[in-house]
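Re: duplicated header lines in exported structure tokens

Our pipeline writes sequence and tokens for each protein into one text file. With two proteins the header for the second block appears twice in some exports. Here is an export where it did not happen, for reference. First protein block:
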Amino acid sequence: MKEGRVNAEARALFWQARDQARLELPEDIQKYTQDIFDKMLEAFVPVTHEIAPNDKGGQPQGDKRKAVTERESEIIKNLISEQPHEIFAKYLRVKT
């Protein structure tokens, strides 16, 4: 979130969370983590390809690059606004 992009470190964390959920958690959480993973990957790929610096194979400045950047920003905002407690709450127990 600090960088406003999905970097390689964040991608690894999403990957780990998704894989761990597949092994240990109920189906609805597995689906949730897969959906989040898919969003992350959609935001990660343009950074590494389409909006990378021109000397690293990215798109030149223009409408296509702007559209890709806007879509990536939209996905990042969506990821930040996720409400995981809505999925996890029914599985949590609080000791009193």
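Second protein block, exported in the same file:
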Amino acid sequence: MINAIIKMLGVSKNSYWNYKKQQRPIILFLEKYFTDKDLEEFLTTGKVSRLESQKLDDDFKDLILDDHMLHNVKFKLRTLSGGTFKMLEILQDALKDIDPNDEEFTQENSKQRLIDRIYAVEKNSMFKTKAKKEGVAKWIKDYLSKAEVYAMVKYPQTIIKLTSNKEKE
């Protein structure tokens, strides 16, 4: 089963073991609800015949997508250099101020709403200058998808925790 999961996720064996140790929901999900045969069938045919007549619950689909999007965002944040990372204090503050339960907040408008919120963040430290805000907004426009931003806003604590840990380094 490990080899099928590695192929499916496009990761190395070491990454798989790291994900497993971190108890990533996608690994737990695949191991709990699928057999090796299911995964191999999907890799070969693009479907799992025993599930074709059943619909997966939308919550599971959302969980898988959100987990994947948050993983992508974390990776992108970790690749930033130290100086650039200081700008993400603005991102952290903007995420704290957005209500993910707001009915007007959608995946389609998530990117623009986050960027608007970034420009509204109060300038109470040397890191929150207009130039830094523009830098963060440009980074979001250039490097994040709407789905990634939507997941960040739905689960801000994941990103806030990551940025807090990075600042301690």
